[in-house]
Amino acid sequence: MTMRILVIEDEARTADFIERGLKEKGHAVDVCRTGPEGLSFALGGEHDAIIIDRMLPQMDGLTILKTLRAEDRQTPAIILSALGQIDHRVEGLKAGSDDYLVKPFAFSELLARLEAIVRRRDPRAAEQTELKVDDLRLDLERRRAFRGAREIDLLPREFAILEYLMRNAGRPVTRTMLLNHVWDYQFEPQANVVDVHISRLRRKIDAAGERPLIETLRGEGYRIRSAT
Amino acid sequence: MPRRLGLGTLSARVIGLSALMTLLIISAAFTLTYIAATRILEQETAEVVEAELRGIVDSSDGGRNLPALIATIRDRAVGESEAIYLLADRDGTKIVGNLSSWPENVRTDGQWTSVRGVRAPNGRNIEIGAVAYVAPFGTRLLVGRDLRAERNFQAALIESGAVALIAAVLLAGVSGFLLNRLVMRRIGDIDRTARAIVAGDLSTRIPVRSGGDEFGRLAVTLNGMLERIEKLVTELRTVTDSLAHDLRTPLTRLKTQIQRGNDTELPDAARGEALGQAADEADRILASFSAMIDIARAEAGAARDQFTEVDLSAVVRDVFELHQPLAEEMGVSLTFAEQAGASVKVSGHAQFLAQLVSNLVDNALKHGSSGGAIAMAVRADHGMAEVEVSDRGPGIPENERAGALKRFGRLDSARTTPGSGLGLSLAATLARMHGGELRLEDNQPGLRVKVLIPVAG
Q1: Quick one: B377 exposed, middle or buried, by C-beta within 10 A (0-12, 13-18, 19+)?
Q2: pTM (2 d.p.)
Q3: What pLDDT, on the 0 to 100 scale, is given for residue B418?
Q4: Does any CB of chain B come closer than 8 Å to the CB of residue A187?
């Protein structure tokens, strides 16, 4: 899926780094260096997603977002900021951002989050009542999971993890993304807490002889992927 | 060299101004009083004299009955009395009376005037307040009063006024000086303290001479500020020292790992492993920095404006559920107990509270897992919400507990286990941010961490 992405970032090095990375992945990129310019581009509404630096000259990122949301522009947006404390993140999300990424960040993390927020805002995603990867099926209305004909007994949290992975099927999901979206935690506990939840989930969905569906991406996170 | 605060320009100006103001106020008041008193006195005299003149004129048929007029004047103009009478003919020649001649400038229209005349029989030149009447045949009659007594009274009034004025100005100067000295002494206290602090002694405090007055209150406020500054500066020193010390080891390790990764003689697998370790090491350093920034912000009281009513029971339960699988994996039985039916509510920030509890569990899993059991509990007791995380590990000896909560006072044993070692310190700061406290207790054996936060409402 090729996307058109608006980058509002005044710092030349970061802007170049993001622009180059996104173009390599085949996306179209517009870069704005000031807040007002960014807002006018964003109001145009031609973009699939917006990446906004929080601190910008003349108008900060939160103001741009609030203005945009007040104008009922629901373009998925992600805030980039060096302000990474819990309350900063909460402020960002309250201003209407779909995600919040703290500088310095790895490009793969930005890309993973970007794809996730675009996917989530996809109108087709909202109407979905069932998610499917191979023979793994998630009934979102009845909150039930099936692998083939076998029903899997999942705890609510496990269901949420699986739903998040499956909504982002084929794309990497980082541990931080899971903590942010499944647990709603804007801080990072001991790194391997998430890993144990994943291995439990794996034991439940992959019965003996079945193809393992959740793969571990070294240094990145996890990905659920169909065989085809 | 500390300079003593003496009579500086400001004090001189204050004293001078106070004296000048006193001078102006008293002068104005005196002048008004003087003018009013003199006028009333003169007016009264004038009315009496006018009445007397009217009486004499009426009783002598408007001045036509000259013999009666002469008899009346002669009767009245006797002795050294203050009353002055003069009857003269149309040329001004004296007929009878106690003035030797008709004074110049006397108005004959019945208006009160002040003139000079010569008193008969002693010939003394005196000031007279007088009214005059000219009878039908040109005979002139003057009735007046010797104004000497009034002039004396006025002089006395001015004299006493001047004395009072001088006394008041002196008094204002003296009281200004005394008041000023009192203020200067108190300012001197503050000045000396400030100089000592500038010179480098941060522990100096302003002496509080009496707690009740304005200066006492100011001293208490300023001392509170100095206390806070000293604490921050000391902390900052500790931070820089400890930071330099604590970062040397991981950075050296990082360097070694990068060198190994760069070493072309090593097999690719070993180089890859070394770079992976370097990345992990860098992550740990970043995590330490995040924890330090978190602590600093929590200490500064950030995010208090984001406080809402938070279900603490739910927060603790979520953290329990997050860590439970990991504990099980580690062979540790993690349990959670809450009061049935009643959830505990506090005023706070759900994310920070979750981070607090999560840090306690992390800490117990890292350092207390050898005991095989970790118990979490939440309850409300006497208006305080209590979160408890207890392990059955080695615990912390009583004399090291205070140090364990300091930002850099980590136990030596903590340095050998993974993590930034700032977990308990951050938890304690977060508890304080919520108006609560964190206590380390002996779980016999193990460590029991108790967080007390006031219940909402």
Answers
A1: middle
A2: 0.58
A3: 46
A4: yes
